[in-house]
Design a protein that fits this description.
Elements: H1 18-39, E1 41-44, E2 48-54, E3 57-62, E4 65-68, E5 74-80, E6 84-88, E7 98-101, E8 107-118, H2 121-127, H3 131-151, H4 156-161, H5 163-177, E9 182-194, H6 196-264, H7 268-276
Antiparallel strand pairs: 1-4, 2-3, 2-5, 6-8, 7-8, 8-9
Helix pairs in contact: 3-5
Length: 297
């Protein structure tokens, strides 16, 4: 009779090669070393400043270039010191233009851009955390407030015609109002839009002015033409009068000359008549008259 029991088979225990384990440790150590190396330095670009934090507390500020830091302990927050633009405008996504009233109570929608730059990166991070937070908490409300104040001192027509003066006063007001680690470099009023009713009234007024100026120009042209015609008539009259005067002077001179000749030569008429006589005596004579031009002594 066969024995059904068979002894259990013993599997060999896994005994890792100590050489293999050492290789894994070297790889892990190498990876950690590389990570620590990359975490031990940082660079700051030109136009930025690095706020150095030790366990979250500000400990300094890094200038542009290559710097070293303690991994994990030290972190860097980069703040741009280049000129930034805060635009209040209408885009496809939003309309951030400002609303204001002129001195003559005309509502206006104004597109404005404000350019600024940071002067103290550490203070910006300490107080606001980022440029965006600083702009929303300082620049935006001050710009809106000062724009309304200044725009309210201009009539609607002056705001259009004296745009340069309005822009300069808005810039000065915003620059003086914004305090802190930032400087306002420039303010530019991009566009001013009034209500449809006001723009229609302005258009009608401008057309009336143009028509008035055209009528005035036509009037001046008629006056000039009339003056020219009058001048031509006067010139013709003067010329005719001069002609008559010259002719009269000539005739008077001729008469005077004849008179002088008759006075100095009493026989001149007889001589002239004799020169013009053809030598024929008249066929009939009045009784008692003498023969013409013949004197018999």
């Amino acid at each position: 009779m066969s024995n059904p029991w068979t002894p259990p088979v013993k599997l060999p225990r896994f005994n890792p090669n100590p050489l293999h384990a050492g290789g894994y440790a070297v790889v892990v150590a190498g990876i950690l070393a590389v990570l620590l190396l990359y975490a031990s330095y940082f660079t700051i670009d030109q136009g930025e400043r690095g706020v150095v934090l030790h366990w979250g507390a500000i400990s300094g500020e890094a200038e542009p270039g290559l710097h070293f830091k303690l991994p994990i302990v030290t972190t860097i927050e980069k703040i741009s010191v280049q000129i930034q633009k805060q635009a209040f405008e209408k885009t496809a996504d939003a309309d951030t233009r400002m609303q204001a009233y002129s001195r003559d109570q005309q509502p206006a929608t104004i597109a404005v851009s404000v350019n600024y730059h940071v002067t103290d990166a550490s203070e910006v991070y300490a107080q606001y955390g980022s440029l965006g937070n600083m702009a929303s908490r300082i620049i935006n409300p001050k710009a809106y407030e000062q724009l309304k104040n200044v725009f309210g001192q201009f009539d609607a027509a002056d705001a259009i015609q004296k745009r340069a003066s309005l822009n300069a006063e808005v810039y000065n007001a915003i620059r003086a109002a914004v305090r802190g680690p930032v400087v306002i470099d420039s303010v530019q009023i991009e566009d001013i839009s009034f209500s449809t009713q006001y723009e229609a009234a302005v258009e009608a007024r401008m057309q009336a002015i143009v028509k008035q100026q055209q009528a005035e120009a036509d009037k001046q042209k008629r006056i000039i033409d009339a003056d020219a015609s009058a001048y031509e008539v006067k010139a013709a009259a003067d010329a005719k009068a001069h002609q008559i005067e010259v002719q009269g002077n000539a005739e008077a001179g001729a008469i005077k000359a004849r008179g002088d000749a008759l006075r100095d030569n009493p026989g001149l008429p007889t001589l002239v008549a004799a020169e013009k006589w053809n030598g024929v005596l008249p066929t009939t004579m009045v009784p008692g008259n003498t023969v013409p031009f013949v004197s018999v002594k």
